[in-house]
Design brief:
3 helices, mainly alpha, 0% strand
């Protein structure tokens, strides 16, 4: 909802172009996350060891409760993903 209100307050052609340019990358990242989740689920069904994942919040898991921090977006999300990859958690974990 906050992003919707921010968009309405800052409408511009440049903002529309930025959103359209970022959309394919966001879709591919979500597709990668979904495929990784399916692989983990398949390993769990086969009884193979599955790395434990940290608790998920926001768009990637559970619904945040009142007072929960907003999920990371934009550069903060990219930094979070990089940190997870360095830690060996993989994408979408």
């Amino acid at each position: 909802m906050e992003l919707d209100l921010a968009y309405v307050g800052n409408k511009s052609l440049l903002l529309d172009v930025k959103i359209m340019a970022a959309t394919p990358a966001a879709i591919l990242l979500q597709l990668g996350d979904a495929l990784a989740g399916r692989k983990l689920a398949a390993k769990a069904r086969l009884g193979k060891a599955v790395p434990s994942a940290p608790p998920q919040t926001g768009l990637r898991g559970g619904v945040p409760g009142p007072g929960s921090p907003a999920p990371a977006r934009g550069p903060a999300l990219a930094e979070t993903r990089q940190a997870r990859r360095r830690a060996g958690a993989g994408p979408g974990m």
